[in-house]
Structures are given as structure tokens and as C-alpha cells.
Automatic annotation (TrEMBL):
Binding site for NADP(+): I8, G9, G10, G11, Q12, M13
Reaction(s) the record says it catalyses: L-proline + NADP(+) = (S)-1-pyrroline-5-carboxylate + NADPH + 2 H(+); L-proline + NAD(+) = (S)-1-pyrroline-5-carboxylate + NADH + 2 H(+)
Organism: Sporolactobacillus laevolacticus DSM 442
Matches recorded under InterPro entries: 6-PGluconate_DH-like_C_sf (IPR008927), NAD(P)-bd_dom_sf (IPR036291), P5C_Rdtase_cat_N (IPR028939), P5CR_dimer (IPR029036), Pyrroline-COOH_reductase (IPR000304)
Protein's UniProt name: Pyrroline-5-carboxylate reductase
Domain Pyrroline-5-carboxylate reductase catalytic N-terminal: 8-100
UniProt GO MF annotations: pyrroline-5-carboxylate reductase activity
Reported function: Catalyzes the reduction of 1-pyrroline-5-carboxylate (PCA) to L-proline.
Family recorded in the similarity comment: Belongs to the pyrroline-5-carboxylate reductase family.
Pfam hit, one: F420_oxidored
GO process terms (BP): L-proline biosynthetic process
């Protein structure tokens, strides 16, 4: 069933969520309202998605909504907005994508510790059908109220709130690690003598195929490598170089740095 949505902060992430949820008919243009302080942004969103928009809080649109999507940045006035929501007397589930801001900080700002709040770290591959959002609910929020909407822009993993930072650094920043690997691999192909086009096409094919192999066989990567790396062959020669390099530690350190930075940003907000 389509949900009516009241979104505050119509930036890049909210737009990606709205685009996917409209496409998958979890929401409809007639029942979607976005508030953004930028006049250019509200004009663009209204023209592109045929939704209603405003530059200021709209109590009636909030009353008409099933869900509130809080999509401003941690440095914006999320506390003031939350206070306005609390003062409106409406008790509509808030889905917050504000990085680093906890459920407790939000209910404190709303002024009601029993207000239903869902904190998510949204999947950013919204247009692909891939990607997972990490979702934490407080005791007042109900999974069945948000599940269909959340699944309209990716897969959903319900997690304890304490895992949100890990989720951000590992899952949400995840495509960045893949883009970097793809870039390193395609440059290797060009270095070896292939054209950029050939290198790109082959790497993309292998990335997708290898992901599919992991998925359909359910095998551990060591088992798949064992099949590919025959005695004294090409695969094991490459494997030796990778094992001798800081490839694995480099990826792991990058993920740990992303998790640490997420926690630092949360403390600053
Ligand atoms: N982008 C991502 O990939 C991603 C991924 C995961 C989570 N997030 C989280 O999603 C949130 C939004 O990120 P974003 O990248 O979409 O940021 P963004 O593009 O900068 O969007 C934020 C929007 O909110 C508007 N805004 C600021 N204060 C407002 C207020 N008081 N009332 C209404 N609108 C207001 C901003 O307008 P002005 O620009 O005019 O100030 C801007 O249009 C952040 O908390 C971020 O941590 C983003």
C-alpha cells in the first residue's frame, strides 16, 4: 500500500529515496510533500517528480502524511525541526537519515521519549535494486509501518542502533571500496596492454560474475581460489604477489577509518 510522505530536507539522498519509492509505487506524487529551505531545490523537485513542495513547515501536509522522512545534514537544525514536529501534536513515525544523530537525541529534541523513531543509514545504490539500508527502531516504532517503504529503495537489515556506525563505514561506504578495486584492476589491464574499453568491460564482467559465483555456490572464497589456482600456474603466481602486498590490510584499514570517522562525526553533531 502506498504511504503518504512528508520529507524535510530535499537534498541528494532524499531525492534518491523519493525517486526509487515513486518508481516502485511505495509512494505516489500526489501524497508526497518535501520541505527544503532552498528555492531552487523545491522548484526542481516539484518540476521533476510532480510532488508538492514548500520552503517552510506545513502542518496540514504533516497531518496528511503516514511517515516523516528527516533528511537534513547533521550540521543543519535537525533539533529545531524535531521540536516543531513534537509541537505539531502529530505522532507520525519519523524515519531519520541524519548521520550520527541518535534516536535518543531525536526524541529529546521532539520532547517525547515515546515518539516513534526509526533511524536508518540508507543504501545509496537506490537506482540499482542492490544495496542494504541499516535500520534501528525504538520501542514505539513498528516495523510493519515502515518495511514496505524502506524496501522500495533497497534491501533492509534491522540492526541494533549500536551497529549503525559500523554499518555506515562498511555497508554504506561499501560501493567506494568496489569502485577503487575496479579502478585498480582496470588500470592493471591498460598497463598490461589492453584498451581502456576492453579493460573496463572485462573487469565489470568479472566483478559481476565473481559476485554471482559467491552467491550461487555459497562457497568460501578460499574454495573458489583453490579451484582457480592450479599447481605452478598463472593464478597462484598472482596470488603470491597479492599475499605479499598490503592489499588486504589496505582495504581493512580503509573500512576501520570510515567507521572511526562516522563515530567522530556523530560526536560533533
Ligand atoms: N548523500 C549520501 O550518500 C548519504 C548517505 C547516507 C546518509 N546521508 C545523510 O543524509 C542527510 C542528507 O545528506 P545529503 O547528501 O542528501 O545532503 P544535501 O544534499 O546537502 O541535502 C540537505 C538538504 O537539506 C536542506 N536543508 C538544510 N536545512 C534545512 C531546514 N532547516 N529545513 C529544510 N531543509 C533544510 C539543504 O538546503 P541548503 O543546501 O540550502 O542548506 C539541502 O537541500 C545527511 O544527514 C547525511 O548524513 C547521506
Amino acid at each position: 500500500m502506498t504511504k503518504s510522505l512528508y520529507a524535510i530536507g530535499g537534498g541528494q539522498m532524499v531525492e534518491a529515496i523519493i525517486r526509487a519509492s515513486l518508481k516502485n509505487q511505495a509512494t505516489s506524487p500526489e501524497t508526497t510533500h518535501v520541505v527544503d529551505i532552498s528555492p531552487d531545490r523545491v522548484r526542481y523537485l516539484a518540476d521533476t517528480y510532480h510532488i508538492s513542495t514548500s520552503r517552510e513547515f506545513q502542518t496540514q501536509a504533516l497531518k496528511d502524511s503516514d511517515l516523516i522522512l528527516l533528511g537534513v545534514r547533521p550540521q543543519d537544525d535537525w533539533a529545531g525541526i524535531s521540536k516543531q514536529i513534537g509541537a505539531s501534536g502529530q505522532k507520525k513515525t519519523i524515519i531519520s537519515i541524519v548521520a550520527g544523530v541518535t534516536i535518543e537525541q531525536l526524541t529529546d529534541a521532539i520532547g517525547d521519549e515515546d515518539y516513534p523513531v526509526v533511524r536508518i543509514i540508507p543504501n545509496t545504490l537506490t537506482d540499482t535494486g542492490f544495496g542494504v539500508s541499516g535500520v534501528a527502531l525504538n520501542a514505539s516504532a513498528r516495523q510493519e509501518d515502515v518495511d514496505e517503504f524502506l524496501k522500495s529503495f533497497g534491501k533492509v537489515d534491522y540492526i541494533p542502533e549500536k551497529q549503525i556506525d559500523i554499518y555506515t563505514g562498511y555497508a554504506i561506504a561499501g560501493p567506494n571500496y568496489i569502485y577503487n578495486f575496479y579502478l585498480a584492476l582496470t588500470n592493471a589491464g591498460v598497463l598490461g596492454g589492453l584498451s581502456r574499453k576492453q579493460a573496463n568491460e572485462i573487469a565489470l564482467e568479472n566483478l559481476q560474475g565473481a559476485a554471482k559465483m559467491l552467491e550461487i555456490t555459497g562457497k568460501h572464497p578460499y574454495e573458489l581460489l583453490d579451484i582457480n589456482n592450479s599447481a605452478g600456474g598463472v593464478g597462484i603466481a598472482a596470488q603470491h604477489e597479492l599475499d605479499a602486498s598490503d592489499f588486504a590490510a589496505g582495504v581493512q584499514n580503509a573500512v576501520l577509518a570510515a567507521i572511526k570517522r562516522t563515530t567522530e562525526l556523530g560526536k560533533e553533531s
